[in-house]
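worker-03 picked up job from queue 'complexes'. Input manifest follows; two sequence lines, order preserved.
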Amino acid sequence: MQDKLINRLASLHITWWVLIGLIAWFVLGANAVEIPSFSKGLSSMNEILVRTWLICRGGDHLLVLCWFFVLIVLAAILGINMAACIYSRLMRSQNGRWPLKLWVFTAIHLLFALVMVLHGLEMFLGHKYPQQQLKAGQTAILDSSWSITVHEVKFINDPELLKLKGQEARRTISRDRFDMQANFVKISLVSNNEPVQTGNLRMLAPMSHGGIHVILRGFDYGPKGLTARIRVVKSFLHTPFTIAYAMLIISMLIWFLLKIRHAPGELPA
Amino acid sequence: MPALYYKIIIAAAFFAYLSSLAAFRQEWKSGVRFLSCLGLVLTLFAALAGWVENVRLPVYGLYETSLHMALVLGLCLESSAHMPALAGPWFPGRIIAAALLVLAWTAAGKFGFDFYIYQSLTVQLFFFLRVAAAGVALFAFLLFATAWANTFLKKTKNDSIVIRQALNTLVVASILFLSSELSGTLWCMRGYGDIWHWSANFFKSAALFLLLMLPLHVPGRLKRNMANPWVGMICTLLMVLAVAVP
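worker-03 finished. Artifact:
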C-alpha cells in the first residue's frame, strides 16, 4: 500500500505536468511585472526577507501574494515528487546492482533538491537590513548591536555620470568612465561599539564578516554631495549554496561523460 | 579593428559555408570538409578578434549573439561530422549557421554597450555561457528535428539513436546554462547580497532552465507516442529565441 503510494507520487507524469505548470507560472510572473502594482510588490519582496514580507507587507500586495502562493504549491509538489522518486530508487538499489551511472543520476537529483532547499531557506533565515544612503563621516545603526560607519567615499571619475539612469546610464557609463577598482567606500563594521572589520567596499566586491555581507549598491551624486548606497545582509547560506550549485553542475557533467562512455562512438558534443 | 574588416571576414565565412553546401550537393567530400572547416575558422577568427578588441567575452546584442551562436553551432556540427548517425543536421545546420552569419554581417563590428560592470569576469561569464548554451541548444533542436524527420517523413522506426544524442546534447546545453546561472548568482550575491532576486529576468531564467529540463522528463506513454522530438524541438527553439531576442 505504502509502496503503491510512493510509486504514484514518484510518477514522471507528475514531474512533467508540474514542470509545465512552473514554466507557465514563471512566464506569467515575468509578464506580470508590467503591471505596476505587481512590480511594486516584487520590489518590496527584494527589500526584506520573504518571511518578514509575508507577515508585514504581503497583505498590501495581494496579486504578488497569490502568485507566490501558487509558486510555492507547485514547488512543494515537485519537491514531494522528487523525494518519492529518490526514495523509490534507493529502495530499488537494495534489491540489485547499482551502477555508477545510477548513483550519479541520484546525486544530481539530491543536489538539485539541496539547491532548492537552500533557495527556500534564504527566504526565511538571516536578516536583510534596509538600504542605507550614506556619505563620508556618517554612521548607520542597523540594530541594537550592529552599525556601519563610512570613513571615505572615493569616486575618481566624473560624478555627473552618476545622475544618469536606465538605458542612458548603460550607454554612457563605460568601463573607462567608471573604474571599479579605484572607486570605493571605506567603511567599518561595528559591533557593540567595537569595530570588527574595516575595509574598502567596491562595486561587486562586498565585505564579509562571518555571515554578515556589506554590499555597495552604487554611488549617487546630488544636493547632498557624493553618497554611497549600502546594503547589509545577514546570511550564512551564500557559501553552501555556491558549493551545492557547483557540485550540481559537476555531477551533471560526470553523468554526461558516463553516458557517452557507455555508448561508444556517440556524440562528444 | 574597423567594422569593414569584420564584414569582410564574416562574408568570407558565409561564402565558405555556402560553397561547402554546394560541394555537398556535388558529393565532393574533401571539398565539403575543407570549406566547412574554413567557414568555422573564419567565424572563430572574427569572434576572437572581437574578444581581443573589447578585452571581454561576448555579451548580448545582435552582432555578438548571432556570431557566437554561429560559432558554437559550427563547432557542434564539426565535432559530430564524423558520425554517420548524426549526419542529418549537417545540411540544415550549415544553412542556419550561414543565416546567423548574415545577421552578424548586418551589424558587423557593432558591439554591445561597454557597460562598466563588464569589468567583472562573473558578469562576462554569465552572458558568454548563456549564448554558448543557446548555440548548443540550437544543435539539439536540429537533432530533435532530424529524429522527427527520420521517423515521420521517412516512415522509419522510432529514431532512438538520434533522440538519445539530442538528449545528451540537451544535457550539455543545461550544464552551460547552469554555469551561466551560477555566474549570475555570484553576480547577484556581490551586487545585491541575495541568491535570488524577485524580478522578470530571474523568472525568465528559471523558466528557461525548466524548459531545458522538460524534454529530459517526458513520461513513458508520451515517449511511445513519439512526443519526444516535438517536445525537444519546441523547448530548445523557445530557449534559443529567448536568449537571442532578450
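worker-03 released lock.
The longest helix of chain B spans residues 121-153.
Chain B touches chain A through 60 residues (CB under 8 Å).
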